[in-house]
Task: structure prediction
Amino acid sequence: MILPRERCVELVSSGSELLDGRRLNTHARLLGGELERLGLRLVRDTTVPDDSAAMRETILSALQRVDLLFITGGLGPTSDDITREVVAEIASRKIVMHEPTREKNNEWLKRRNRTPNESFDRHALIVEGAAVLSNRAGLAPGERIELDGKTIVLLPGPPHELRAILDDHVIPWLRSCIGGDLPLCRSFRFCGTGESDIAMRLASAGFSEVGLEVAYCARPGDVELRLIASPSAREKFDQAIALVRKIFPSEIYSETAGEEIPLELVIGNLLREKKLTLATAESCTGGLIGHRITNVSGSSDYFRGGCVSYSNKIKIAQLGVAPETLAKFGAVSEAVAREMAEGVRRVFGADIGLSTTGIAGPTGGTAEKPVGLVFIAVADARGTVVREMRTGGEREYIKTVSAQSVFDLLRRRLCDLA
Amino acid sequence: MILPRERCVELVSSGSELLDGRRLNTHARLLGGELERLGLRLVRDTTVPDDSAAMRETILSALQRVDLLFITGGLGPTSDDITREVVAEIASRKIVMHEPTREKNNEWLKRRNRTPNESFDRHALIVEGAAVLSNRAGLAPGERIELDGKTIVLLPGPPHELRAILDDHVIPWLRSCIGGDLPLCRSFRFCGTGESDIAMRLASAGFSEVGLEVAYCARPGDVELRLIASPSAREKFDQAIALVRKIFPSEIYSETAGEEIPLELVIGNLLREKKLTLATAESCTGGLIGHRITNVSGSSDYFRGGCVSYSNKIKIAQLGVAPETLAKFGAVSEAVAREMAEGVRRVFGADIGLSTTGIAGPTGGTAEKPVGLVFIAVADARGTVVREMRTGGEREYIKTVSAQSVFDLLRRRLCDLA
Result:
């Protein structure tokens, strides 16, 4: 990856809580995704504790490599919030009070019947000469500091405050600096086709990576293939897209300009478009499928509900699975998956029923029915399709892959591909 | 923060997907938390793209500061997986095939009726002389490489694989290196009590932080209070623990030596101990509660199953909620939460029924019933308790806090605290 220096950006994430297990660092993903869409690239994120020597060294070293540096965290009122002090020292500037921010924060206190104090006022301290990036979601503003032809942007650590200042100030400012000429980006998502399988099939079809950036990202039951090209390589980019579509006509569940569309949203859109309703019968997934479907706002338009039938008794009483089927084939079987999907469709009065039954482990496996054996089914007015899956891994992994797979089976069924 | 060099550890997280918005870097939190419990400290995490020059520079620079370096990611089969090549070059070693891993991976393929290929075999390549850390959760093993008195540990990027190799190999190895003298660590977890509330109540009770490290970490519906002390401060540490227990007799849902025990496991243990069974009726949580209960291995011992009643029709037909109750109070009401919990308990033949009904948003709120209004209920042989909650935030946040809160209500009920 060789990029012109003006496209490269670094991030320094400060905060001891990011390094001792207490908190997840979400800054790099958020900032990285936004920069990517602007044709810029986050080339490094260095997470350091609240330690001024480590911060100083990291900042100086980053400024040797890039001209635009973001620093998150350490703008709060407590003694371990040291970012502005370290940056002021590097820039040989004073720390000054930003009166408009102090007044705004005092108003905030007043509304809560609390009195200002010195520690609280620290929120409004800035590096002298910085452009202040007001914070509608919190108390400490962001700051943009120009220093010897380089720019340092200071942003607060809480993710919703970071998000607000990015949207209000940073992205508009970057857009105005960049002008036109955004890069070409295409993201394809697959379920049930492995990373190496995709790479092999592309290679055999004569897919050439010359002039393109090609990246894969694998998650449980999910692979992303991303193509990026410069605006001048439009023809090459379009050819590559056409070839990918041709090789994988049924495997791709989403194609976007870079943003992520989860499979449950793809399915939700298909159900809404086709005016169909859905009900779920979950055994090994235990509720995960319903949870994911209902993460989509507006899912009540097509989702009737579901039954988590974690015991045979419930499969019989709530879903109408025949006791003889359970006795003859066992709960983890093609026949039971079929009856569960058909049962929930009937009982919940939905157009489509789906089901999962399997062995999520780590216990309960046998030689004949090992951990990771899962049957998934989709029942609709045309009949019922059932698939047998064999996967490995831990309990949550098996649940995740099972949910992904039954979503994909449903997608294929809705698109007449299964 | 001044620490002896032998306690300091660095991490290099490799993967362009961690910097372009595709994936969240969870490595630092996972590794940082584990190191903390061993008395070691993660002092830096540098995330770099799949770029050999940047990786080389970062690794060499880290090795100047610390003697133990972890590198995650880049051990997969594709052309952007370059970690082992970069490390081999730094160590002036060859890359060799690890035959036992290749055979294990080929078995894995065979079970899936797929044939090996050259790209797939790359999973089994290692740096010559490395100790192989077998990977029960995936295909590429970890590697431990000794180099000029320093140790480099290579680990795969997928979090469940990283977790497995940490548990199976890395933590036992670190324990054997460290010997005795682990720091004293105690973690208290709260649901429904805020961070600043805990701090205030501790301060009023005369809790002194002298000689202790005290850290808080707040997540949706969950606060951790962590106390750390050196082994020589045992008396002070024990006094602090006794005081915390005394101030919060009913609020603490778990007390551990640092590891996380999720609320669903606490509840599972209580249900098993008391030989009680559970069924769930979920509206706004959509399946999340069932999902979390069934993340606990062995939950089929006490979890009968549940109903995701995402429409009024299902609440009536499946749970026996009275149409008049729905008409009079609306689906999001104390009365409906009560009838849902009692209904699922009766219909599923369980000892305890629990329920959630609320407005997860972002749409569907009114002035009287705003987004974030949720009713939770627990019904058992002694009767039914219902609680009204008002929270803010986004859809997934509201679902998470609702699930936490009904779990905590159930915990209190099982412990005769509600």
